Amino acid sequence: MTTENKPAEPLKVERSIVTKLVITGAPSLDPITVFLEDLAPCKGKITVSCWGKSWTAYWGGMWDGLNIGQFFCQLDTRYIIGYFDQGMRSRQFSGDALANKAQTAVLTDRRQGHLDQEEARELFDGAEDIREASSIDYLAGLHYPLMKKLFGDEWWRSADDATESNPDYEYLERIILAVQQALRQEQPQQEAA
Known about the structure:
Layout: E1 18-23, E2 32-40, E3 43-50, E4 53-59, H1 68-74, H2 77-84, E5 91-93, H3 95-111, H4 117-129, H5 136-142, H6 144-151, E6 163-165, H7 167-192
Antiparallel strand pairs: 1-2, 2-3, 3-4, 5-6
């Protein structure tokens, strides 16, 4: 097999103007770095970084007349979070919430006479073990028999509403709000210049 030595085609290089902001003083947040890039009319990109994590979004259909910073300020934080990280949810599975739900169900079944005292005690104490669960997969692997006794054959459905606030979501939401506040603060200065 022979390969031809073709002369290398020159690389295409495009320049764009990027605005960098460093935001400090946001309550309970490390410094936030923001890169704003207006690529063309109605097209822009933003990169937000804080404490070693970065999120990037590109919009190819921004509203007429807005730059990327102005457009970003018009958006809802939930929408932005979905754009930055499609898998992130405001709520996450909670072993504590599921354990509390299980123990409440055991007490209800005991009061209604569906469980004797010994079986109720065993299930109530067993429910305490699921408090440390970090996911439904964890429960399926380690506590399947217990979960089936507590919630029946389709026990995983009971875990759907066993949730708590997601601290990663709340953290990113605080970062976005700080960026939006800083961008709004910057806009009058840019217009005056």
